[in-house]
Amino acid sequence: MPVGAAAANLNGSKFVAMGFSGMNVWAIGDLHLALGRPEFRERHAGRWREHAQKLAREWRGVVGPEDLVLLPGDVSMARNHREVQPDLAWLDRLPGSKVLAPGNHDGWWNGVAKVRPMLRRTLMAVGGDALATHGTVVCGSRGSPVLSDDASAEQRAEHDRELASLDRALAAAASLRTANQPLYVLWHYPPFDQHGRPGSCVGRFERAGVTACAYGHLHSEGQWSLAVQGEVNGVRYACVAADAIGFRPLGLGGSDTSVPHGMEKAP
Ligand SMILES: [Fe+2]
Ligand SMILES: [Fe+2]
């Protein structure tokens, strides 16, 4: 079970030493909220039964009002802006400021320019661009799976579009970043494949001096055990799919995340 390992890797002394004067950075993805789709929840509840309540409880247990929380995709199962409103309202009520990026299930996300105007007070978004907040720079994109040799032309085209989006995001981040500021990337898909081979995004992260990449998308223990986590060539990787981390946001840096808070939840 990678939960404890991930938490331990991500809370090493180097990371914590970056402390941001009293605030913390957390990450959690794949919330798969469906508060605006009761019929969906009844059909697909299963292991996600009442997970919003569990998420809220865990979130309130660790995240403070001054903190920053990064959400790398699969935020909501809503299909449009109307359906996503209850989910955004629910997120807004939780402590901290949040930065959202889209995942493959975020059918409501129709581009960051259209999403931003409807975001509530504590919510921000990135999608092929970047923002500076809480003494950090955050950028991101939906991302793309690592290409396999037998990828279709359609998959290759999508992959190329997302890499171009990542290049724009990293360029925007570079223009915002000042010396020694942490740079976080939200990228929904695992940057390495199940054999540990890096995707095309990884070299870009390294060249840009990314501090940490938060990703998700993986929803089984078999996948989590193969996911690359911890530091690779100066970049830290964290699989923060909600079910992979016990529905509790994972600390990425700051003053209160020195305790590997996922450890006590590892079975
Ligand atoms: Fe997901
Ligand atoms: Fe996903």
Output the keywords.
267 residues, alpha/beta, 6-stranded mixed beta sheet, 5-stranded mixed beta sheet
Model description:
- The protein is of the alpha/beta class and 267 residues long.
- Helix content is 33%, strand content 19%.
- Strand 3 (97-101), helix 6 (112-115) and strand 4 form a beta-alpha-beta unit.
- One fe (ii) ion binds next to loops.
Order of helices and strands: HHEHHEHEHEEEHEHEHEEE
CATH class: Alpha Beta
What small molecules does this complex bind? Answer: fe (ii) ion
CATH topology: Purple Acid Phosphatase, chain A, domain 2
- The total number of structural domains is 1
What is the CATH-assigned architecture? 4-Layer Sandwich
CA radius of gyration: 17 Å
Quaternary structure classification: single chain
Give the strand tally: 11
Shape: globular
